[in-house]
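Technical note accompanying the year-one report. For the benefit of new consortium partners, we illustrate the data format agreed upon in the data management plan: each record pairs a sequence with a structure-token string. No post-processing was applied to the example shown here.
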Amino acid sequence: MQLNDILEYLSENGKLMLNMHDVTGILSSKPFDIERKFRMHTLKFCDIAKSTSAGYMLCTSCKKTVCKMALRCGKPLFGTCPYGLFELVYPIKIDEKVECILFVGNQTDNPKNALQKSKSACEKTKVNFKDISKEFKNINTANTDFMLETAELISEFIYLLYYKNKQTINYKGHCHRIVEELKHRADEHYDCALTLKKMSELYFMNEKYLGRLFLKQTGQTFHSYINMRRLNAAADLLENTDRSVIDISLECGFNSISYFNRIFLKKYGKTPAQYRKYTAKSR
């Protein structure tokens, strides 16, 4: 049995959201390799919370903060996220070293307070509160003992897997895995204020080293990769919608219309307005 199998079983039968944040690279090595859904907060509630740039950055900042706390203290932490969900943050150790951090969630310890906290966060981040409030019906009442028992079971399973496969385990692919994670984040959230600095802090890596690694493995800087995704999205909107150039620029993550126009011209040989006219004639 692989780690992914037990996470699948426990998440379905325990009605929990389980995801793991790599610290040392252990999740890059078999039999610890897990599906992407267990590497991210992929609950629909969380997807809505991250549906605006401000919402995404709030969630990312929260995760970065609690990961640092868990790494520093090395002990389980219970807490409530900015949108009101109750979670267990559980550092998993092998030989007293934190290898990865497990999140156990999809819970609420006080539905009324959680709803109010969610409303307050939505007002700050412009996330649609009506949409997110509907998801509270799918959130379970917190059982801290059960959450801890689940985390301990996963931790023990990882410990046993590690010592069973110790001679063949290596973390050689860890850096490549982090680059893939950064690409996924840029692909999914190019409209947000993603920076290499923020990503390096989230993955406990040196910013300059991560930048060189990303360039080496992709042939582009992280900034260039994000801009590529933004420009592709902008070109699609220019072709298929009647939205204004300014609106498209902002929706795709560009805060400066002059910068957007300049790099769009550089890539496509036309300004956004010219590109729209050109593609309209070509149909």
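Partners are asked to follow this layout when depositing records. The longest helix spans residues 53-73.
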